[in-house]
Amino acid sequence: MTVPLDRIPDSLGYLVLADDGAVINSGGDLENNEDIAKLFLQMVHTASRIPLSSSKKDKYRKISVVWDNFMYVITVSQHKVFISKRKYIPPDPVTA
Amino acid sequence: MERNLDKHLDDTFRVPGVAGVICADEHGFCLGAKGVANRESSGHIANIADSASKLNPSLPNPVISIEGEGGSILIKKEDNITMGIYKAPN
User: Fold this and answer.
1) CB contact at 8 A, A26 and A12
2) CB A67 to CB B68 under 8 A?
3) Into which CATH architecture does domain B2-87 fall?
């Protein structure tokens, strides 16, 4: 099954990793970037050890790493790590 | 110095929607924690901020957001200090 990650709006690149860190699929800015893949895997492992609330069952759904004009969005599903690099367009502040 | 940090953490904790705050040094040692923040998470929070800054070493440190159903954490490293803000779900 192929996941159309390059069709995500404002996508700059994507990476799909196996649970051992092997690159399954990649494209755009992140094409075959194995060094960055190791860092993402490390972050996914660390994030799973941080409790988000008092309930121990609560697991994270999504990690975002945000700079001024782009962001990485990371999620885990079916023993695979999905990473998307996207343009970051901050929402306009709401003025009352 | 500790009093300053404590006041800063208190001020942040009082912001509506904030469920907890945690502050760690560059070694992951917990400098302060309030609310739902678990002092034992300080090492992981400092570690994840460190890994994220290595993704693009030429850029300033990013903001990391870890989101789940029961809440989310915003993490940012500034100089040698890493700060985590726990938010309750909307």
Assistant:
1) no
2) no
3) 2-Layer Sandwich (3.30)
Of B15, B49, B50, whose CA–CA distance to B35 is shortest?
A: B15
ipTM of this complex: 0.90
Q: Using DSSP, state whether A47 is helix, strand or coil.
A: helix
| All domains in chain A, ordered by first residue | 5-87 (3.30.450.30)
Q: What pLDDT was estimated at residue A58?
A: 76
Hey, what amino acid is at B13? F
Residue A39 and residue A65: Cα distance in Å, rounded? 12
Partner B contacted by A34 (CB < 8 A): no
Alpha carbons B86 and B21: distance in angstroms, whole number: 6
Q: What is the pTM of this model?
A: 0.89
How far apart are the C-alpha atoms of A80 and B58, rounded to whole Å? 28
Chain B residues whose beta carbon lies within 8 Å of the beta carbon of residue A65:
52, 55, 62-64
